[in-house]
């Protein structure tokens, strides 16, 4: 009995150690990477003019919280500007692309009308719209939002259309048996069935919108993370470039993490 209890306690301790190791492993890997990065520059393997060491990037981060040079804005202002553009374009892409995809997937006439035009526009990358966007609406924030919209619109349409087409026919037939109209089946069966794919499309759209941000902010911007990175290149400041890249990466991670939590909360009934 004592031996069994001893084995049980040992297994419990091993399990806790494994969970602790599993939790700390990603942070250990990142720390090792940063140390190697710092040491490789200190040792002269890589020129600091081409790749700033992590400590320099950290000092630039602290400095940019209050210093507006060289791009004319603090880091907080640049982040807020980029968030405004990316989230506005993402919202438009989701608000227009998701209903369109659901309607195309459920109603065949709508799909026949819209699909040829959509398939023609779908392969065009978002940044290819920059010249036309400048001609149409100039180089202000609406132009940047429109470019980000194009990057978010396509995955929302595709995933919503694919998701609603996976609705179980047996449920649709059952609804018709009880007198439900086609629109009622669309609302009560089609849309709920499509939600996992809709959320997957929004997640892809979120990544696309954030990734397109730098290209969008090349249009005569005066603030934003992409603009900060561009000026970092012009002034030969790799620390500023890397800081902008790191902030974009961290914010993208936080957005994805938060979105996954929201998705799990709203779609818990699917599990």
Automatic annotation (TrEMBL):
GO BP, one annotated term: alkanesulfonate transmembrane transport
SUPFAM superfamilies: MetI-like (SSF161098)
Membrane topology: Multi-pass membrane protein
Record InterPro entries: MetI-like, MetI-like_sf
Keywords: Cell membrane, Membrane, Transmembrane, Transmembrane helix, Transport
Main location: membrane
Parts forming coiled coils: none
Transmembrane segments: 20-39, 85-107, 119-139, 145-164, 185-204, 210-228, 240-259
Domain ABC transmembrane type-1, first and last residues per copy: 79-259
Domain of life: Bacteria
Keyword flag Lyase: no
Gene Ontology CC entries for this record: plasma membrane
Pfam family, one: BPD_transp_1
Subcellular localization(s) per the UniProt record: Cell membrane
Presence of the UniProt keyword Acetylation in the record: no
PROSITE patterns tied to this protein: ABC_TM1
Family classification: Belongs to the binding-protein-dependent transport system permease family.
Protein name: ABC transporter permease
Protein source organism: Vallitalea pronyensis
Lineage, broadest ranks: Bacteria, Bacillati, Bacillota, Clostridia, Lachnospirales
